[in-house]
UniProtKB/TrEMBL annotation:
<comment type="similarity">
    <text>Belongs to the peptidase S10 family.</text>
</comment>
<protein>
    <recommendedName>
        <fullName>Carboxypeptidase</fullName>
        <ecNumber>3.4.16.-</ecNumber>
    </recommendedName>
</protein>
<dbReference type="InterPro" id="IPR033124">
    <property type="entry name" value="Ser_caboxypep_his_AS"/>
</dbReference>
<keyword id="KW-0645">Protease</keyword>
<dbReference type="InterPro" id="IPR018202">
    <property type="entry name" value="Ser_caboxypep_ser_AS"/>
</dbReference>
<keyword id="KW-0121">Carboxypeptidase</keyword>
<keyword id="KW-0964">Secreted</keyword>
<dbReference type="GO" id="GO:0019748">
    <property type="term" value="P:secondary metabolic process"/>
</dbReference>
<keyword id="KW-0325">Glycoprotein</keyword>
<dbReference type="GO" id="GO:0004185">
    <property type="term" value="F:serine-type carboxypeptidase activity"/>
</dbReference>
<feature type="signal peptide">
    <location>
        <begin position="1"/>
        <end position="27"/>
    </location>
</feature>
<keyword id="KW-1015">Disulfide bond</keyword>
<dbReference type="GO" id="GO:0016747">
    <property type="term" value="F:acyltransferase activity, transferring groups other than amino-acyl groups"/>
</dbReference>
<dbReference type="GO" id="GO:0005576">
    <property type="term" value="C:extracellular region"/>
</dbReference>
<dbReference type="GO" id="GO:0006508">
    <property type="term" value="P:proteolysis"/>
</dbReference>
<comment type="function">
    <text>Probable carboxypeptidase.</text>
</comment>
<dbReference type="Pfam" id="PF00450">
    <property type="entry name" value="Peptidase_S10"/>
</dbReference>
Length: 497
């Protein structure tokens, strides 16, 4: 009798398994599918989805995302959330100009759409990527309650965490994939603060449980002291200022370059500013295509109260790129507590060099907006690379405590830095990563890409790695796409770089 009962139970289990195999499983929302992308001919290299996640029903606060499935094995490959900086800049910056699935060729006739080609170095070759416009008010993200545009680091992190929880509910097939968070510039704040919220949720048993593995930060602002003191040793090492001036600045400022406390120190720092004033602060190897105002911007910023700061800007040399807006602070003006003011507040003028033709033309085209499920113009009138709509409060202080918290719990971290960026110089990132006090397990050495030395790296215990990219400026995947894809691939796979 017992044998007969067991056999019946086994038969039921087998039938149940067969039935479940034929039942449809929940997957990505069909309404989010992007079926075609204006400007691109042919089949998309992988599945694309786009749309909104409401993070606050009562306020109507909605965050926009564009999701690119991996071109390799989307069911297994990591899912990566990408965040551009600002604060106030759209992550379409990364999509259009850095590591998205397409390279954008500017239209020959004004007003026409750019032509899109497959990007051989897209990060979607090895991972699925969520490009998120955050916080509300940035890019295509919006709120029906305008008070939400008074925001800051803490609120942005909690909203982004809410977004992720709801996103993985919409796309449950990706819950088991390894999950990483990545970003650059002011995302040096976004990434660790969001990662902290994610880990806090995991520890508290919040569902769905995210399979979070680690994070990456490129040329990211981190700490006012380390970032603010980075410029002088950087320009000296690059041969931009003389030994004599370097020694004088050190003597008068006692190594404190970001917050001068004497007239003599300020005078010597002004000499440094004069010498670098004609350079492209985002890549000292590249030309400037306008009369730079770096010194004027820096002086204006540093003289402001610490609660009233703003990011910097200059042009880019690429045919499709003519501005850098809101990506990093002016010289010697690192992230500090308080409200981040707009360019008109800083210079009493509109931002210089504000002509991002390719991205602005493409993303404000009606056919494109319809294809990628962007909001109607009554809700988001026009897309801007970086907005001045926000009043943004940097309210989380130094990021070093966040990095220590995350890495001490075993999450992997890669801090990478284009070594010719003068805005967030590698000297600051190298110094603060060393200050963590972790044991060196992989001593300073070159790393290679395509058979050539691509930069240098130093590995610490607790899966914490610092890496430079040789000859790159502030936005590494834009300047060095092959090298960026190489270290990105190795990091995600847990391989040595």
């Amino acid at each position: 009798m017992m044998v007969k009962s067991c056999c019946s139970m086994c038969l039921c289990l087998v039938l149940l398994h067969i039935l479940l195999c034929f039942l449809p499983t929940q997957s990505a929302p069909e309404s989010a599918i992007v079926t075609q992308v204006p400007g691109f001919s042919g089949s998309l290299p992988s599945k694309h989805y786009a749309g909104y996640v409401t993070v606050d029903e009562s306020h109507g606060r909605n965050l926009y995302y564009y999701f690119v499935e991996s071109e390799s094995k989307p069911s297994e490959d990591p899912v990566v959330l990408w965040l551009n900086g600002g604060p106030g800049c759209s992550s379409f910056d990364g999509f259009v100009y850095e590591h998205g699935p397409f390279n954008f060729e500017a239209a020959k006739t004004k007003g026409d759409l750019p032509t899109l080609h497959v990007n051989p170095y897209s990060w979607s070759k090895v991972s699925s990527i969520i490009y998120l416009d955050s916080p509300a008010g940035v890019g295509f993200s919006y709120s029906e309650n305008l008070t939400d545009y008074f925001t800051g680091d803490t609120k942005t992190a909690t909203d982004s965490h809410t977004f992720l929880l709801k996103w993985f509910e919409l796309y449950p097939e990706f819950r088991s994939n390894p999950f990483f968070i990545a970003g650059e510039s002011y995302a040096g704040v976004y990434v660790p603060t969001l990662a902290y919220e994610v880990v806090k949720g995991i520890d508290a048993g919040v569902e769905p449980k995210l399979n979070f593995k680690g994070y990456m930060v490129g040329n990211g602002v981190t700490d006012d002291q380390f970032d603010g003191n980075a410029l002088v040793p950087f320009v000296h090492g690059m041969g931009i200022i003389s030994d004599d001036l370097f020694e004088e600045v050190n003597r008068e400022c006692n190594g404190n370059f970001y917050n001068p406390t004497s007239d003599n120190c300020s005078s010597k720092l002004s000499k440094v500013d004069e010498l670098v004033d004609e350079l492209n602060i985002y890549n000292i190897l590249e030309p400037c295509y306008h009369g730079t105002e770096a010194e004027k911007i820096t002086e204006s910023y540093i003289k402001m109260p610490s609660s009233f700061r703003k990011l910097g800007e200059t042009e880019r040399p690429f045919p499709v790129r003519k501005r850098m807006f809101g990506r990093a602070w002016p010289l010697r003006a690192p992230v500090r507590d308080g409200i981040v003011p707009t360019w008109p507040q800083l210079l009493k003028a509109s931002p210089p060099c504000t002509d991002d033709v390719v991205a602005t033309t493409w993303l404000n085209n009606e056919a494109v907006r319809t294809a990628i499920h962007a909001a109607q113009k009554s809700l988001v009138s026009s897309w801007e690379l970086c907005t001045d709509r926000l009043s943004f409060d940097h309210d989380t202080g130094s990021m070093i405590k966040y990095h220590k918290n995350l890495t001490s719990k075993g999450y992997r971290a890669l801090i990478f830095s284009g070594d010719h960026d003068m805005c967030v110089p590698f000297t600051g990132s190298q110094a603060w990563t060393r200050s963590m006090g972790y044991k060196i397990v992989d001593e300073w050495r070159p790393w290679s890409s395509n058979g050539q030395v691509a930069g240098y790296t130093q590995g610490y215990d607790k899966n914490f790695t610092f890496l430079t990219v040789k000859g790159s400026g502030h936005t590494v995947p834009e300047y060095k796409p092959r090298e960026a894809l190489d270290f990105y691939t190795r990091f995600l796979a847990g391989l040595p770089i």
